[in-house]
Amino acid sequence: MNIQKTVFEGSFPTYGQLPAPSLPEFAFWGRSNVGKSSLINMLTRQKQLARTSRQPGRTRTFNLYRINDQWRITDLPGLGYARVSIAQRRRWEQEIWRYLHQRTALTGMLYLVDSRIPPQRIDLDTLQRLLLLPVPLTIAFTKIDKLSRNQLAQSLQRFKAALKKTLAVIPMIIPVSVVSKEGQEELLRWISEQLGTE
Ligand SMILES: Nc1nc2c(ncn2[C@@H]2O[C@H](COP(=O)(O)OP(=O)(O)OP(=O)(O)O)[C@@H](O)[C@H]2O)c(=O)[nH]1
Ligand SMILES: [Mg+2]
Questions:
Q1: pTM over 0.70
Q2: What is the mean pLDDT of residues 130-139?
Q3: Cβ of 177 less than 6 Å from ligand 1
Q4: DSSP character at residue 79
Q5: What is the 3-state secondary structure (H, E, C) of 81-121?
Q6: Rounded CA gap, 60 and 58, in Å?
Q7: Fewer CB near the last or first residue (10 Å), C or N of the chain?
Q8: Could you list the residue range(s) of the whole structural domain that residue 118 is in?
Q9: Which residue puts its alpha carbon closest to atom 13 of ligand 1?
Q10: Parallel/antiparallel/unpaired status of strands 62-67 and 6-12
């Protein structure tokens, strides 16, 4: 896929404020700081389209990007950010699940997992719930430039073993790095496939 035009459409604090679901949409989700915004910049080949940060919890709204006037990316607030109140966190999660269940334009779900850390309960539980949705899901295994090839293989194996224990179906896993650009083409190919525009 050739990305020629990317437009930031805005930040929307609640599901009810989102623009009409007029284009196919891909949601990017995962734990806070996993690299969602960085991956959006990499895919769209923009430096600072999506705001990234060393501090977790940067994305606090639904951020919408329109690509080629053809489809959209929704950058969702990171899961499990500890520095906001539990009540605030619940409110976000409720909004996100409402979006995931009700957004008719939702065409694909990209769930990001940090390749450097052991399998986390919150990721496994969330993936289990996401797989109940009628939406194709792929996992992006992020920040792989920080691991050696050996470490990556081990980490992938450990993660797949954890998935097998929890999930009936193992989703596709695409290793990615915004530093080395690994995974970029594969991810764009997956998106094209879901759009039916390969
Ligand atoms: N080395 C390396 N660093 C990365 C990669 N992707 C993201 N990072 C770094 O990880 C940190 C968090 O990245 P963000 O893209 O802001 O993460 P996010 O998931 O959008 O975070 P929130 O919006 O806070 O939930 C930043 O310091 C990024 O530079 C990667 O592939 N490799
Ligand atoms: Mg972000």
A1: yes
A2: 97
A3: yes
A4: B
A5: CCCCCHHHHHHHHHHHHHHHHHCCCEEEEEEEEECCCCCCH
A6: 6
A7: C
A8: 6-195
A9: 35
A10: antiparallel
Predicted confidence (pLDDT) per residue in 3-59, tens digit: 889 999 999 989 999 999 999 999 999 998 999 989 999 999 877 766 766 666 566
Tokens standing for residue 93: 């999660």
Residue 23: inside a domain, yes or no?
A: yes
Distance CA 20, CA 23 (A): 8
Residue 158 located in a structural domain: yes
The CATH number linked to 151 is 3.40.50.300
> Total structural domains in the chain?
1
Query: Is the CB–ligand 1 distance for residue 107 below 6 Å?
Result: no
Is 1 a member of any domain?
no
| Residue 192 parent element (H or E) | helix 184-195
CA distance 13 to 95: 9
Q: Which residues contact 16 (CB under 8 A, 6 or more apart)?
A: none
Closest to 42 in 3D by CA, of 93, 98, 95, 110: 110
pLDDT of residue 59: 63
Give the distance (Å) from ligand 2 centre to CA of residue 36.
Answer: 5
Q: How many Å apart are CA 54 and CA 24, to the nearest integer?
A: 30
For residue 42, the SS3 value is: helix
